[in-house]
Design goal:
Layout lengths: L5 H15 L20 E3 L1 H4 L1 H4 L3 H11 L2 H4 L1 E7 L3 E6 L1 H14 L13 E5 L11 H19 L3 E8 L4 H17 L14 H14 L8 H25 L6 E4 H6 L2 H10 L4 E4 L2 E4 L10 E4 L8 H13 L5 E6 L3 H13 L8 E5 L2 E5 L2 E2 L12 H8 L1 H9 L7 E4 H5 L6 H18 L20 H22 L3 H21 L15 H25 L8 H9 L1
Parallel strand pairs: 4-5, 4-10, 5-6, 10-11, 12-14
Antiparallel strand pairs: 1-3, 2-3, 7-8, 8-9, 12-13
Helix pairs in contact: 6-19, 6-21, 7-16, 7-19, 8-9, 8-10, 9-10, 12-13, 13-14, 15-16, 18-20, 18-21, 18-22, 19-20, 19-21, 20-21
Length: 568
């Protein structure tokens, strides 16, 4: 928390006034009014405290307006509106102080210690090693990575984990598919399994297998199939890892589902569940009474043949997370996992873990379109668009941003026409152009951005409406990062950066020497020049830091910006 952050100053002033009214510890939310004429920031705290204080909201608001220390809050006016809203108008100095924080703190601006260094494990992607990563995996990859970055920026000690589903029926299907292609390559007339994997990548694996072992595995039984499975899984795991690295995503640990069986964790979990008295036999299967913890029906743990259902290894895996010291855990998964949430949590509660563990962030799938028509252009994968397809088509920056710019629970249409556009119609380029334009100003003025100092700078000179609006947005950044982290919502940062870039570009174009010389950054007035260069540096810091959280580059030069500089 920064003493010069306008929102923090107002919260502290409200808290002091509320303490005197007998409402200690009340939570205060601030937001920007949609209509700027209503002020710079607003709160509904008077309405949320009406029941506690047993008074009318407007009466509470009027008392707060009269008792808040305006100088301490950095405001020129506190106004009561409607049924009890409080609107605040920031002083020019308080608004501009955000620039000082941004310039002084640099790449630390926006960081906080909300997490207090506590460990948290985030598990995401967790794709079956049965084929290339598809667009849905790509959305999850970008989403999970951005959540990790947000958590790190807010003081959490993040452990990144990928759970490989390398056990079960899908692995058998993969092995049988590779076996069929392998035999066909050797001239053996065999058919592909009806439920086999049809993509061209299966033939590629079979070709690599043939090149390595010749016909040694032809016509062999179980051991040969096991060798084929292991060979295919290694190739696909390596490929998935390369695609993720290309997206700038790395993991601390790859956890194998098979290890839950080989290390005895599934058997251990079964034993512990039986000891709870919540396990019973019915129709030859072994059930857990998950309804005792809010599930809509009891769940089968072990089938009649003794094999585990998907539910059981999930419980064992999360017990393992807890045992490794992760009392906070987030799973980023597709919306098709919605049905597993209640049963996994119920199994964990039966073993003594707290309600709500783990936390889930579920996302909807992705539809890739060009001109309104769905695109499935990967011949290798067979019937879907891969992450690599998108990276090769529009680049990593655009791919990541488009996966992040909608809230997770909303369906995402990945518009290839918009994504390929390199103008400001593309939100990624809009933000990057804004950042590059600030560097262009410094190059024209022969100023090293890293040497811009706040010493002796009079920020109150930034009084133009466009400057004031831009500075307010820069001051919103730390609070926005905290909010996006708390809500596990990187799309809020995308919205913020796009709107801020719009304000930056409006100010930049207005200050073009050929249009409005009085707004030019490189003014002949030394004081004004220093203040505006400080604003330029503040913009660079905020846009670069925001893009860093999203895992997107912040270029200092771009083609369009270079063309504009030549014209200027």
């Amino acid at each position: 928390m920064s003493a010069s952050d306008p929102q923090d100053r107002i919260r502290e002033a409200i808290a002091t006034a509320l303490d005197a009214m007998g409402a200690e510890g009340a939570e205060v939310h601030l937001e920007r009014p949609r209509d700027p004429s209503h002020g710079d920031l607003a709160t509904n705290v008077a309405m949320t405290l009406a029941r506690t204080l047993r008074r009318a909201p407007r009466q509470i608001a009027e008392e707060l307006a009269g008792t808040i220390d305006r100088e301490a809050a950095g405001v020129t006016a506190v106004e009561v509106a409607g049924p009890g809203f409080l609107n605040f108008r920031l002083s020019a100095g308080a608004v501009a102080e955000a620039i000082r924080d941004a310039v002084v703190q640099g790449d630390a601006y926006g960081r906080s210690d909300e997490g207090e260094g506590r460990p948290i494990v985030v598990e995401w992607v967790s794709a079956n090693p049965t084929g290339p990563l598809h667009a849905g995996h790509g959305r999850q990859a970008a989403l999970g990575d951005a959540i990790c970055r947000l958590l790190e920026w807010t003081g959490w000690r993040v452990h990144r984990e990928f759970y490989y589903n390398d056990a079960g029926r899908q692995m058998e299907r993969l092995a049988l598919s590779v076996q069929a292609r392998y035999e066909q390559l050797l001239g053996v007339p065999v058919e592909m399994p009806e439920d086999g994997y049809q993509g061209a990548y299966v033939r590629e694996i079979a070709e690599a297998l043939r090149d390595q072992v010749g016909d040694r595995l032809s016509g062999s039984g179980g051991p040969a199939l096991d060798e084929m499975r292991a060979f295919a899984v290694k190739i696909l795991r390596d490929e998935q890892d390369r695609d993720l690295q290309a997206m700038r995503i790395a993991f601390d640990h790859f956890f194998l589902e098979s290890s839950l069986y080989s290390d005895g964790l599934v058997d251990d979990t079964v034993g512990k569940l039986r000891a709870t008295g919540l396990v019973y036999e019915h129709e030859g299967a072994t059930w857990l009474r998950t309804t005792a913890f809010g599930d809509d029906k009891d769940r089968v743990m072990l089938k009649s043949d003794g094999s585990a259902t998907y539910f059981l290894p999930d419980v064992a895996y999360h017990m393992n997370k807890w045992g490794r010291g992760f009392e906070h855990a987030i799973n980023v998964q597709g919306a098709d996992h919605h049905g597993t949430v209640a049963r996994v949590r119920a199994g964990l509660q039966a073993l003594g873990l707290p309600e709500g563990y783990p936390e889930y962030v579920l996302h909807q799938m992705v539809r890739v379109e060009r001109d309104g028509v769905e695109v499935k252009f990967s011949k290798r994968a067979g019937s879907y668009t891969t992450v690599r397809d998108l990276e090769e088509e529009v680049g990593v920056d655009v791919t990541r941003y488009f996966f992040l710019m909608r809230k997770p629970e909303a369906h995402l249409v990945f518009d290839l026409v918009e994504a390929a556009d390199q103008s400001e119609k593309n939100p990624v380029f809009k933000i990057q152009y804004a950042h590059a334009r600030m560097h262009a100003i410094c190059r024209r003025g022969e100023v090293n951005p890293s040497e811009i100092s706040m010493e002796g700078v009079d920020l109150s000179l930034l009084g133009h409406e466009l400057e004031r609006e831009l500075v307010k947005r820069l001051g919103d950044f730390p609070d926005l990062v905290r909010k996006a982290a708390e809500l596990r919502a990187p799309h809020l940062l995308c919205d913020y950066l796009e709107q801020t870039a719009g304000a930056v570009n409006a100010w930049y174009h207005a200050g073009n020497p050929t249009r409005a010389p009085e707004l030019a950054v490189l003014s002949d007035d030394p004081g004004l020049r220093a203040a505006r260069l400080a604003l330029v540096r503040g913009v660079m810091v905020v846009l670069a830091n925001g893009l860093e959280i999203l895992g997107i580059s912040a270029p200092e030069r771009m083609v369009r910006e270079e063309a504009e500089s030549a014209v200027d």
